[in-house]
Amino acid sequence: MAVYTDITESELGAFLAGYDVGELQSYRGIAEGVENSNFLVHTTTGQFILTLYEKRVNRDELPFFLGLMQHLATHGISCPLPVKRRDGGTLGELAGRPAAMVTFLEGIWLRRPQPVHCAEVGRGLAEMHLAADSFTMTRRNGLTLEDWRPLWEKARDHADGIEPMLRTETEALLDQLEAQWPRDLPQGVIHADLFPDNVFFLGDRLSGFIDFYFACNDAFAYDLAVCLNAWCFERDHAFNVTKGKAFLNAYNAVRPLTDAEVDALPILSAGAALRFMLTRLYDWVMTPEGSLVVKKDPLEYLAKMRFHRQVRAASEYGLD
Amino acid sequence: MAVYTDITESELGAFLAGYDVGELQSYRGIAEGVENSNFLVHTTTGQFILTLYEKRVNRDELPFFLGLMQHLATHGISCPLPVKRRDGGTLGELAGRPAAMVTFLEGIWLRRPQPVHCAEVGRGLAEMHLAADSFTMTRRNGLTLEDWRPLWEKARDHADGIEPMLRTETEALLDQLEAQWPRDLPQGVIHADLFPDNVFFLGDRLSGFIDFYFACNDAFAYDLAVCLNAWCFERDHAFNVTKGKAFLNAYNAVRPLTDAEVDALPILSAGAALRFMLTRLYDWVMTPEGSLVVKKDPLEYLAKMRFHRQVRAASEYGLD
Question: How far is the C-alpha of A117 from the C-alpha of A268, rounded, in Å?
Fold first, then answer.
């Protein structure tokens, strides 16, 4: 929730001169996104989101993210479309940082999604998985099972200070995941971070997906596991099976899950809960006081880890 | 630079139902303003800024601020126009806070204003002073000379830790101001916080004023003193007489300054520098580590205080 880099009018003017977007009318920093600096830019031809990629983003991976958005937007998926520069590229430089402009997407993200919205996300996610099938670039998932133990080792000495059982339970789950993680599931490009703040709605209809900066090649079913964690729990951390049912069945109607995917849902969901617990824990203990980043509570995901570990079959998530 | 209060879609929907502004299309938190939470709202009829007034704002004063914007906007001054609710009022409630919507103003604020922009601000400020003349509500300046010593007393024990001479020089200036502050200057409604981030430009033309939440009744010339501090110094804290000349002469051409106002400029400017030094010092020592508020350096204003104290006549600011 911050703008890390401010830009001067002359820097922005020089940057926009590389595009065919008309005259600058206004730009305002947006209080969204924790990794990059985002500005809403109005020109005489329209509205755009300008993103300055801060140092946590690997510059070499930007063509994958921008290329994916371009591919999806031209294959029927509503998402921001990178604007082409006069030189034909989509990546520029501004204030010493890689920078890109994408089209502005109308819609609001839902602070309190209902089952009808979970169904929309399920349908939309399946459509996204299918549309990305013809995208030719690839990117390894930078936060998959192999990355979790090193992350844990950096943060675990602080875990007991947060919650006494966190250390024991995390290590038991890591051991279990390393022994049982499914390796042969159908793979493709996944979003990998499809939380409610990355999905826009107009009324009850999904109007678009944003923030593809964790997108990568991995098991499709892992994307579903992320969404079960992100969309189908209540504020008291209790699983809402009505939401799970709506989400999974809507997905399954567009891209039918294989038996192996169905069987893998509980362990993938426990893994996804661990992944978000770990990055939250790491940020919790590593973020200096005084930082502009809002820390998120890692214990929410301890509760979710516990839930998924006792799930025996995907039907408990609501899958028909 | 923060959004303090997030709002849910249902809260916002209920709030917007009180207005005749069409259907909600999107809302995004804006990373501007340190006192309140601001959102850019798109509806099917236009674009608006929604402000939630946080606890540092006195609710009883909101009708003054909103009324002033309405008065100015209908008297030829470009500024946000408060949108009327169906019940005829401009102030509502959202997420437990007073809230208002104003029209969106195109334009950008200049990180590096040039003399041509200082002239625009001088002209526009004079026009604003004249247009506000017929506004009937009044508000006492909450940060005038009488308020500076109590503020100083809360922060002074920390002053020497920041800069050894800060304490001695501030107390000498406070004594001088209390002895010599001019009391009989022409009065009216002033903006009182007209920094570059509160003035929008399209190209080199001033396109509007925003953020009237320090506006009050006080000496017009004090508003000029604020602007000399805010617009006419360089990043190394040196006064730029070309900017001062452009600003003062453009103002003087629209609303000619009286001899008493001209004579008072150095002491008013020293006072304005002290006022911003004091609030910055207070925020510097009182803001807890970990706050979202970006602290501004109080020493910038010590340098300006020193400059103004050695000015002997307004001609040294560039006034013809």
Answer: 22
Average model confidence (pLDDT) for chain A? 93
Q: A50 phi and psi, to 5 degrees?
A: -105, 125
Give the nearest partner residue to A26 out of B8, B12, B108, using CB atoms: B108
| Torsions phi, psi for B136 (to 5 deg) | -95, -20
Instruction: Report helix, strand and coil shares of chain A as percent, to nearest 5.
Output: 45, 15, 35
Give the integer Cα–Cα distance in Å for B252 and A27. 32
Test A108 with B27 for CB contact under 8 angstroms: yes
Interchain CB distance below 8 Å, A42 and B1: no
Cβ–Cβ below 8 Å for B290 and A291: yes
Higher model confidence: residue B6 or residue A169?
A169
Share of chain A above pLDDT 90, in %: 82
Query: CB-CB: which of B2, B24, B202 is closest to A108?
Result: B24
Chain position carrying tokens 């189908």: A232
Per-residue burial over A196-214, b = 16 or more CB atoms within 10 Å of its CB, e = otherwise: bebbbbeeeebbbbbbbbb
**The pLDDT of residue B50 is above 90:** yes
Side-chain-side CA neighbours of residue A253 (13 Å):
13
pLDDT at A300 over 70: yes
Cα gap A9→B142, rounded to integer Å: 33
* CATH number, domain B9-105, options 2.70.98.10, 3.40.630.30, 3.40.50.720, 3.30.200.20: 3.30.200.20
Nearest CA in chain B to A107: B26
- Average pLDDT score over residue span A200-223: 96
Given a cut of 60, is residue B291 above it in pLDDT?
no
Looking at residue B138, its pLDDT comes to: 97
Tokens of B128: 């604003």
Q: Which residues face A108 on adjacent strands?
A: A201
* Correct CATH for A115-317 of 3.30.300.30, 3.30.70.120, 3.90.1200.10, 2.60.120.10: 3.90.1200.10
- The CATH architecture assigned to B109-317 reads Alpha-Beta Complex (3.90)
**Domain extents for chain B?**
9-105, 109-317
The residue with greater pLDDT, B3 or A143, is: A143
Of A3, A24, A203, the CB nearest to B31: A3
Token code pair at residue A191: 């979003």
Report how far residue A234's alpha carbon sits from residue A248's, in angstroms, rounded to the nearest whole number: 17
| pLDDT for the residue numbered A290 | 53
Interface residue of A24, A28, A295 to substitute, partner B, most B CBs within 10 Å: A28
Is the ipTM reported for this complex over the cut 0.85?
Answer: no
Sort out which chain A residues have CB atoms less than 8 A from B12's CB and list them. Answer: 108
Q: Tell me what the pLDDT averaged over chain B comes to.
A: 93
Provide the pLDDT confidence category of residue B1 given band limits of 50, 70 and 90.
very low
Give pLDDT, residue A1.
37
Superfamily designation of domain A9-103: Phosphorylase Kinase; domain 1 (3.30.200.20)
Asked if A6 lies within 8 A of B200 by C-beta distance, the reply is no
